[in-house]
UniProtKB/TrEMBL annotation:
<keyword id="KW-0820">tRNA-binding</keyword>
<feature type="compositionally biased region" description="Polar residues">
    <location>
        <begin position="462"/>
        <end position="471"/>
    </location>
</feature>
<keyword id="KW-0808">Transferase</keyword>
<feature type="domain" description="tRNA (guanine(10)-N(2))-methyltransferase TRMT11 N-terminal">
    <location>
        <begin position="6"/>
        <end position="175"/>
    </location>
</feature>
<comment type="subunit">
    <text>Part of the heterodimeric TRMT11-TRM112 methyltransferase complex; this complex forms an active tRNA methyltransferase, where TRMT112 acts as an activator of the catalytic subunit TRMT11.</text>
</comment>
<keyword id="KW-0694">RNA-binding</keyword>
<dbReference type="GO" id="GO:0032259">
    <property type="term" value="P:methylation"/>
</dbReference>
<dbReference type="GO" id="GO:0160102">
    <property type="term" value="F:tRNA (guanine(10)-N2)-methyltransferase activity"/>
</dbReference>
<dbReference type="GO" id="GO:0008033">
    <property type="term" value="P:tRNA processing"/>
</dbReference>
<dbReference type="GO" id="GO:0043527">
    <property type="term" value="C:tRNA methyltransferase complex"/>
</dbReference>
<feature type="region of interest" description="Disordered">
    <location>
        <begin position="437"/>
        <end position="471"/>
    </location>
</feature>
<dbReference type="Pfam" id="PF25904">
    <property type="entry name" value="Tmrp11_N"/>
</dbReference>
<keyword id="KW-0963">Cytoplasm</keyword>
<dbReference type="InterPro" id="IPR059073">
    <property type="entry name" value="TRMT11_N"/>
</dbReference>
<dbReference type="GO" id="GO:0000049">
    <property type="term" value="F:tRNA binding"/>
</dbReference>
<keyword id="KW-0819">tRNA processing</keyword>
<dbReference type="InterPro" id="IPR029063">
    <property type="entry name" value="SAM-dependent_MTases_sf"/>
</dbReference>
Length: 471
C-alpha cells in the first residue's frame, strides 16, 4: 500500500526518546512507519510516512512525546511555495470530503511570536481553498494548521522561517495523561519515584499490551507498575526494603511529618483505578530471586538503584562463616546486608531477564553512565537479548542515565555470562561522590559523620582561639 506523508508535532523535551518511542509503538501495533529523517531529532517537527489516518490515530493513542499528528499537504521555505503546492492539490480535489464542513485555520510560530494581524493575513491568504462550510473556532470538522519554524533559539530567530508546514489535524498524543498521574497528588511517593511521563514511556519501550504480565524487581513505590498498568498489563514487583513496601520510611514530601497509615503501592493503584491490574508486591532481594524457573513474563520494566539516593545492597554476611538462622528465629530474623555492586546488579538483571522473559518479551531499565567513558560497545549485553533502544537523559555535565530496551530473541545459552562493564559503572558513582561512595551505607554514613566531627572540632578550635585573642 502506498504511504502518505504526515507531520508529527513533538513535545519539547526528551528529544532523544521520540524516535525510539515511535518505533517501538509502531512495531508493537504492526503499523508501517517510515521516518523521512530519523536522525533529525532536535526540532519539534518530524516527517513520517504512514498508511492512513487510522494508523496515525493508533500510534498516537500510545505516544507521550508526540503532541499532535497532521496529514501534511505542503512543506517549504516560503509562503509562495506553500500556496503553489496547495493550489496544485486543489486541482486534485484534495479537500472534497470537507467541502460543506465547518473549519478553521490556525497559525503557529516556533521560536517566534506571530502577531494577531500577521496570523489573520496568513489565514486570509488561504481564501481560495474550496471550503463552503462555516468557520468554527472550537471543535470544527476540519482543522487546518500552518506551522512556521524559526529554529530552536527564540533569541536568534531569523526574519524568515527555516521551514513552513501546512496540514490537516488528525489526532493528539497522550501527553495529557501525565497530569493524571502527577507525583504531587499521588498517595504514596518516595525520593526516587519515577516521573509519570517516563514511566509511561518505559511501558511503550517495553511494548506493554493489555493482558501482559510485567514485573519490576526494584519496585520501590511502584511508579513503574502504574506506567505499565495504565497500558493494561497485570503488574507485580519486588523490593528488598520492607520499610518501603510497607510505607514506613520517612516521608519525602516537604512538611509531611508522618506517613499516613494507608500509604502503599496498593493504595496508588487504587487511586488511579488500576486496582484490577495489580497482582502484588513482595519483599525480596533481586540477587536471590524467589521465582520458579518456569515463570514467564512479557516484560521487565525497572529502575535499579544507582547508589546515589538509595543504597545498593543485597542480603549477605561479611562473616567468613555466617551464623545459621535457627527455626525459632526465622519469624523475627532481619537478614544482614552487604554491598551489591552496580556491575553485579545489572548482570543479575540480564540473567534474570534471559531466564524469565517470553521470547519476544522486553527488558527495559535505566543505566547510569559517565559521559566521558561512554561508548555503545560498553553497554550491557547478552546474546539472547537484542538491544532495541538506548535513550540518554542528561543528569549533570558529567553524568547521564540511559533508558535501555532489549528484546529476548532466543533462549539463553547456559554457559554464557552477561557482559556488564563494572568499571564504567564504578566511574559513575565515584564521579558523583568522590571516594566517599565506596563501602556500604553504614561505612559511608561513618565517613560523613567523621568529616562532620572533624569540621566541628576545627570550628571549636577556631572559636576558642578567637575568644583567647579577644580576651
Ligand atoms: C531507584 S529505586 C526504584 C524506585 C521506583 N521505580 C519508584 O518509582 O519508586 C530502587 C529500589 O531498589 C530497591 N533495592 C535496592 N537493592 C535491592 C535488591 N537487592 N533487591 C531488590 N530491591 C532492591 C531499593 O529499596 C529501591 O526501592
Amino acid at each position: 500500500m502506498a504511504l502518505t506523508r504526515y507531520l508529527l508535532w513533538c513535545v519539547n523535551d526528551l528529544v532523544g526518546f521520540r524516535v525510539p518511542e515511535l518505533r517501538s509503538v509502531a512495531a508493537m501495533l504492526g503499523i508501517q512507519l517510515r521516518f523521512q529523517d530519523p536522525e533529525e531529532t532536535e526540532h519539534p517537527y518530524l516527517l513520517v510516512d504512514l498508511e492512513d489516518d487510522e494508523s496515525a490515530r493508533k500510534i498516537l493513542s500510545r505516544t507521550l512525546l508526540v503532541r499532535s499528528c497532521f496529514r501534511l499537504y505542503a512543506a517549504g521555505q516560503s509562503m509562495a511555495e506553500i500556496h503553489r503546492q496547495i493550489r496544485s492539490l486543489i486541482a486534485q480535489d484534495f479537500l472534497s470530503a470537507y467541502r460543506e464542513a465547518s473549519f478553521r485555520i490556525q497559525v503557529e510560530g516556533f521560536s517566534k511570536t506571530i502577531s494577531f494581524q500577521e496570523k489573520l493575513d496568513r489565514v486570509n491568504a488561504f481564501a481560495y481553498l474550496p471550503l463552503k462550510g462555516p468557520v468554527k473556532l472550537k471543535d470544527p470538522d476540519l482543522s487546518l494548521h500552518l506551522f512556521e519554524y524559526y529554529g530552536l533559539d527564540p533569541n536568534r530567530a531569523p526574519e524568515e522561517p527555516y521551514r513552513i508546514f501546512f496540514g490537516r489535524w488528525v489526532c493528539d498524543g497522550q501527553r495529557k495523561q501525565t497530569s493524571k498521574y502527577s507525583l504531587k497528588d499521588r498517595k504514596f511517593i518516595g525520593s526516587t519515584s519515577m516521573d509519570p511521563c517516563l514511566a509511561l514511556i518505559m511501558g511503550n519501550l517495553a511494548q506493554v499490551k493489555p493482558g501482559d504480565i510485567v514485573l519490576d524487581p526494584f519496585v520501590g513505590t511502584g511508579s513503574l507498575l502504574i506506567g505499565s498498568g495504565h497500558w493494561g498489563a497485570y503488574v507485580l514487583g519486588t523490593d528488598i526494603d520492607y520499610l518501603t513496601l510497607h510505607g514506613k520510611t520517612k516521608p519525602t514530601r516537604y512538611n509531611q511529618e508522618f506517613r499516613a497509615p494507608d500509604e502503599s503501592v496498593e493504595a496508588n493503584m487504587k487511586q488511579y483505578g488500576l486496582w484490577n491490574r495489580y497482582l502484588d508486591v513482595v519483599v525480596s532481594d533481586a540477587a536471590l530471586p524467589i521465582w520458579r524457573r518456569n515463570l514467564r513474563l512479557d516484560a521487565i520494566v525497572t529502575d535499579p538503584p544507582y547508589g546515589i539516593r538509595e543504597a545498593t545492597e543485597k542480603i549477605g554476611s561479611k562473616r567468613h562463616k555466617p551464623r545459621p538462622v535457627l527455626g525459632h528465629q526465622v519469624k523475627s530474623h532481619i537478614p544482614s546486608r552487604v554491598q551489591y555492586g552496580l556491575g553485579e546488579i545489572y548482570k543479575d538483571l540480564l540473567r534474570f531477564a534471559a531466564t524469565h522473559l517470553e521470547i519476544g518479551g522486553r527488558l527495559v531499565f535505566w543505566y547510569p553512565v559517565n559521559q566521558d567513558g561512554y561508548c555503545e560497545e560498553r553497554l550491557p549485553s547478552l546474546s539472547c537479548l537484542q538491544l532495541r533502544a538506548n535513550c540518554e537523559q542528561v543528569l549533570s555535565v558529567h553524568s547521564s542515565r540511559r533508558l535501555m530496551a532489549y528484546t529476548k530473541i532466543k533462549e539463553p545459552e547456559s554457559s554464557e555470562e552477561p557482559f556488564v562493564d563494572a568499571e564504567l559503572l564504578a566511574g559513575f558513582r565515584d564521579r558523583f561522590f568522590g571516594s566517599a561512595a565506596k563501602g556500604t551505607r553504614q561505612e559511608r554514613k561513618k565517613t560523613v559523620n567523621e568529616k562532620r566531627q572533624k569540621r566541628l572540632h576545627e570550628l571549636h578550635a577556631q572559636l576558642s582561639s578567637a575568644s583567647e585573642e579577644g580576651s
